[in-house]
Amino acid sequence: MCEGLEKCPHCGGPVRIAYNMELIPYGVTCSACHTITTFTRIKPPKPREPFERVLGEIAQAWNRRDGA
Q1: Among the four 13, 22, 42, 63, which has the fewest Cβ within 10 Å?
Q2: What is the pTM of this model?
Q3: Which range marks the domain in which residue 2 is found?
Q4: 53 in a domain, yes or no?
């Protein structure tokens, strides 16, 4: 499980950040039930911008979802 991410609301399993084919973070996936949640309103990092901003925004969005 990724540091700072709440467990999966569906099965209680561990979750991790999901990355696309270009290795850009875009959401969260559960290792147990394979649910994927994407956050389309979070803008991808600009060229040469570190991923920390995006990772933090994804973690905040995931942890404040309904049912958390």
Answers
A1: 22
A2: 0.80
A3: 1-15+41-68
A4: yes
Rounded distance between C-alpha atoms, residue 59 and residue 27, angstroms: 9
How far, in Å, CA of 19 to CA of 41, rounded? 15
Number of domains within the chain? 1
CA distance 60 to 44: 15
How far is 50 from 13, CA to CA, in rounded Å? 28
Cα separation, 11 vs 30, in Å, equals 9
Sign of CA dihedral 50, 53, 57, 63: positive
Is position 33 within any domain? no
* Total residues found in the chain within this entry: 68
